[in-house]
Design a protein that fits this description.
213 residues; 8-stranded antiparallel β-barrel
Length: 213
């Protein structure tokens, strides 16, 4: 008798969700959430972000015999200059976008000049979107590029093929139609076997979102 009661209770628990599932199947079939409509960001994305670059770099000529030889080491000291990033991609959700693009960076002072460029993969999320903070973005950039440092007395350093990684934040303070405007702050590291540069980028950006219309 006891086993029959337990078996009946067990079957009742299993059967209890069936009406709800049947109703969902009849009226609102589950499709993985793919019918969810984006409210703020969707479709094609294009971003442009000019910035002030604050940097320090040091390294050697990209020649095996000169790398790590103190006689050939060149340091930029503190340097600053213009920078710009641009990317194209898409917005999969209101809170997630991605793209590919490039960057140009420059920093100089009275005795040195550092210039470089890079190919970047741009990944961006709005982690607090569901909490009501819909315009705070956290993003990361990864890629590869080159960097050269020209110092005094004809000394120079070159990165050759350098790895690039960094991340930053942006807050979209204004929206006009499909365009969003935001101040930005970012840290970027460029490193190779012959040259390393640390950079802080402070700037602004404008992003075009293809949708929602």
């Amino acid at each position: 008798m006891r086993r029959s009661v337990l078996a009946g209770a067990f079957l009742a628990v299993l059967a209890s969700p069936l009406p709800a599932l049947a109703q969902q199947s009849d009226n609102q079939p589950w499709n993985g959430g793919f019918d969810q409509k984006n409210e703020r960001r969707s479709d094609f994305v294009f971003g442009l972000s000019p910035s002030l670059v604050l940097m320090a770099a040091d390294g050697y000529p990209n020649e095996v015999s000169k790398i790590n030889d103190p006689a050939y080491k060149t340091s930029s000291g503190f340097a600053y200059g213009p920078g710009c990033q641009a990317w194209i991609g898409g917005a999969l959700r209101d809170w997630f976008t991605f793209g590919v693009g490039g960057a140009y960076l420059q920093g100089g002072n009275t005795s040195t000049l550092t210039t470089g460029g890079a190919f970047l993969v741009h990944i961006e999320a709005f982690p607090f979107y569901r909490l009501g903070l819909k315009d705070l973005a956290v993003y990361a950039n990864f890629g590869a590029g080159g960097l050269s440092l020209h110092g005094p007395h004809h000394k120079h350093a070159a990165a050759g093929f350098a790895s690039i990684g960094g991340g930053g934040i942006a807050y979209e303070v204004a929206r006009i139609g499909h365009f969003a405007f935001a101040p930005t702050a970012e840290y970027m590291l460029i490193a190779s076997h012959s040259l390393t540069a640390s950079q802080a980028l402070i700037g602004a950006r404008v992003v075009f979102y293809g949708g929602p219309s």
